[in-house]
Amino acid sequence: MRCIINGEMIDLPAHIRTVAQLLQHFRIHEKIAIVEVNANIIMKEKYEHTAIADGDRIEIVHFVGGG
Amino acid sequence: MLQIGPYTFQSRLLLGTGKFPNIDIQKEAVEASGAEILTFAVRRMNIFAPDQPNFLEKINITKYKLLPNTAGAKTAEEAVRIARLAKASGLCDMVKVEVIGCDQTLLPDPIETLKATEMLLEEGFIVLPYTSDDVVLAKRLQQLGCHAIMPGASPIGSGQGIMNPLNMQFIIEQATVPVIIDAGIGGPADVALAMELGADGVLLNTAVASAKDPVKMAKAMKLAVEAGRLGYEAGRIPKKKYATASSPSEGMSIV
Questions:
Q1: Which coarse location class applies to the principal site listed for this UniProt protein (chain B) (predicted)?
Q2: Domains of chain B, first to last
Q3: Cα-atom radius of gyration of chain B, to the nearest Å?
Q4: Among A7, A30, B59, B219, whose CB has the most other CB atoms within 10 angstroms?
């Protein structure tokens, strides 16, 4: 499966089906992060039940230093 | 005490978290500043470097209120999107609306700022718009119901201090919500002046983060906020053209 994650086309292993699995794959499941799939914000409680599909545009953002 | 929406703070200094030399110095500086509100930006995560240190994970975030900004937004819609993302973290419901209208000066776009403020208030955010030092715009933002006004002292990161103290006074005098002077602060004297003018708080970042000794500067800013506020409450004497002697003119011993 190929998704556009943070603007980059990325090939994902076939077993990744949900947002929760995606975050685990990149080892960022314990980080403070916010996920958007096709411009919809996904709340944490829904990570396990939110499916991702080929061609999805996924944004994974976090807090960085700023004024 | 500083009251913003439903929240009460002891400290009147708000600190940005960008540009510090490293996380250890940043932690120490935040501590020394006494700030209870810390600003952050929202950016894409580098998913290929999960172990990269993140300041937010190194502090006890229950001790602070997070104030995410919408920096990077050029339209109201972009600002609203960033604010929603920040809120979805579950860590904050305040937002600093920052919609830049000019790349060179980084001055805020007044029209987009107003629009974003209105949209975010409707969604239930605690909204603190970063605005230019324009009293009419400040009034318009207040009428919308924003929870504080954050006029810029001078361009972001410029360290020029308060370019137009008169405009700041106009804003402060008519304010019905806290006025937090934001951006352009250079040193403790600027902070003290802001507070002496009657500002309710000061938000700064570069002046501390890029100082030779950020920890010492953080402490200096904390003291400047306190000194300025005390001075404001104490009531400054009016300026006069001519001298008035401090020592009595009677009872002089003359040889």
A1: cytoplasm
A2: 1-232 (3.20.20.70)
A3: 20
A4: B219
Residue B62 assigned as binding residue = no
Compute the 3-state secondary structure of chain A and give helix, strand, coil in percent, each to the nearest 5: 20, 40, 40
Question: Is B96 among the catalytic positions?
Answer: yes
Is B184 known to sit in a ligand binding site? Answer: yes
Domain count, chain A: 1
**What's the CATH number where A50 sits?**
3.10.20.30
Instruction: State the nearest Cα–Cα gap between A33 and chain B, in angstroms.
Output: 7
DSSP-assigned states of every residue in B117-148: HHHHHHTT-EEEEEE-S-HHHHHHHHHHT-S-
**Domain for residue A24, yes or no?**
yes
CB contacts of A19 in chain B (<8 Å) are none
- The pTM of this model reads 0.91
Give the residue numbers spanning the domain of A36. 2-62
In order along its 255 residues, chain B shows pLDDT tens digits of: 999 999 999 999 999 999 999 999 999 999 999 999 999 999 999 999 988 888 988 888 899 999 999 999 999 999 999 999 999 999 999 999 999 999 999 999 999 999 999 999 999 999 999 999 999 999 999 999 999 999 999 999 999 999 999 999 999 999 999 999 999 999 999 999 999 999 999 999 999 999 999 999 999 999 999 999 999 999 999 999 999 999 998 999 988
